[in-house]
Amino acid sequence: MKKTYKQAGMLALSVLLAGCATGPSPQQVAEATQKVFKSSFRDQGIAKTSWLDQDASNKACSEAQGAALEPQLAKSIEEANLKTIKMPSDGKFLGDWKEGEKIAQNGRGMTWTDKPGSANGGSCYNCHQISKEELSFGSIGPSLYNYGKLRGVADPAAAASKPIVDYTWGKLWNSKGYNACSGMPRFGHAGILDETQLRHVMALLLDPASPVNK
Amino acid sequence: MRWNLLGLTAVCLLPLSVAAQKSTAEGIAEYRAMLADGNPAELYEARGEALWKQARGPKNAPLTQCDLGKGPGVVKGAFVELPRYFSDTGRVQDLESRLLTCMETLQGFSAEAIAKTPFGRDEQKNIESLVAYISGESRGMKFNLPQAHAQEKLMYAVGKQVFYQRGGPYDFSCASCHGEDNKRVRLQDLPNLTKNPGAGDGFGAWPAYRVSSGDLWGMQRRLNDCYRQQRFPFPGYASDATIALGVFMGVNGKGGVSTAPALKR
Q1: Residue B91 phi/psi, 5° resolution?
Q2: Closest in B154, B175, B231 to A47, CB measured
Q3: Chain B residues touching chain A at CB-CB below 8 Å
Q4: For residue B26, what pLDDT is reported?
Q5: Chain A closest CA to B225's CA: distance in Å?
Q6: What is the pLDDT of residues B126-184, one digit of tens each?
Q7: CB contact under 8 A, B162 and A33
Q8: Pick from B177, B174, B168: which is nearest to B232 by CA?
Q9: Which ipTM value was assigned to this complex?
């Protein structure tokens, strides 16, 4: 009798331990996560709970948790994002690098403490080195110092510069067109910066007169 | 007090501009060392201890019977084992959500009303002091969050999903800033919260006195400001998403030493 209890106890213990070792199933985790997101967030100012809805890129890159995507999936996400890129309506790619520098410095915009309709910054220095003069720059993205110079852009209007100019515009408009899980915001696609602002940032990167290319 | 804070602000501006020429980490470490003997968090700790023992609320009772996970009234060592599962509420709770439970059951406050109160006001102000006191009682101890209960395991797994969840107009997740080693936003070093030492250092520094805002911030306020800058919608105070993140960071930081309440820029 005593032995039976002991065996039953051992069995219960081993079942419990097995349960401990395995942890929750992926389905349990997915369901619980969905519930947690639904119950945890609310609208505040311009920040809406609809911002939690994910497109294919954000969904796949969240699930990958930092790992590389399957090449096929990455390709389809990049193709879909490339299609969203709108080239400048008047064919003019470069504005004023001085204005571009201000936009690169400005990290404001699109938080729940920002007013609707106010112009956003580009937050560029948060993640990138850009001009040599600004020492307070982040390191999440690559250095952009000498961006145009290193790519041989002596005259941004020249035909030889066109591929780099087009690519840079596209990368700023929708970074996920070139890298499915890029950490960079989709400045044009997401409506963070408008065409005029993007032209100024383009000039900061590509204008030979910009301090970036000195 | 007011003069002290003004002085602090002035002192803090100088080393930060010097820091640009040195390494950032060096400058900030130097500045913290300068203030180490005078961390204003100590004032909050003292006030928190008094609040813990003071009879308050509609039931006119102290918090001294509050169970933070190690039995009623045990404060020492509780902080480094939170968030954890509590059988009386059937939930995994972090320090602040657990305080809400105790303030409601023991003192008769409305947890819902406190959760809706903006940071730094009324009972939220008192919670700042309480978390300073409670975390301070575990200063120097190592994080060791329990992971035996199924709910604790589930919340870790959920926290990991929440950490990597991209969204908002900027496509950011927690991992955008805190998923890799040796990254900075501007001059600010970013701890990698997926493993040690970043997880222990980062998670283990909050609550902290934040010089730039002149307030003591609990982990809830810290996460709330992260989500603001992440361009996400507003996370509810003591919501499950924030608690799950606490489990994720705290378990990743196992063995790391708690420095809370620390001093932050």
Answers
A1: -135, 155
A2: B231
A3: 20-21, 148, 150, 153-154, 157-158, 160-162, 164-173, 175-177, 179, 182-187, 190, 228-229, 231-236, 239-242, 244
A4: 74
A5: 10
A6: 999 999 999 999 999 999 999 999 999 999 999 999 999 999 999 999 999 999 999 99
A7: yes
A8: B168
A9: 0.89
Closest CB from B171, B175, B244 relative to A66:
B175
Please write the tens of the pLDDT for every residue from B73-92. Answer: 999 999 999 999 999 999 99
B226 is a catalytic site residue: yes
Phi, psi of A75 (to 5 degrees): -65, -45
All domains of chain B in start order, with CATH: 41-264 (1.10.760.10)
Nearest C-alpha in B relative to A33 = B158
pLDDT of A154 above 50: yes
């609208």: which residue's tokens?
A43
Global confidence as pTM: 0.88
Cα dihedral angle (A97, A99, A101, A105), rounded to 10 degrees?
-160
Cis peptide before B197 (omega within 30 of 0): yes
Beta strand extents in chain B (DSSP E only): 84-86, 91-93, 183-185, 188-190, 208-210, 215-217, 234-235, 262-264
Other beta carbons less than 10 A from residue B167's beta carbon: 24
Q: pLDDT tens, B244-264?
A: 999 999 999 999 999 999 988
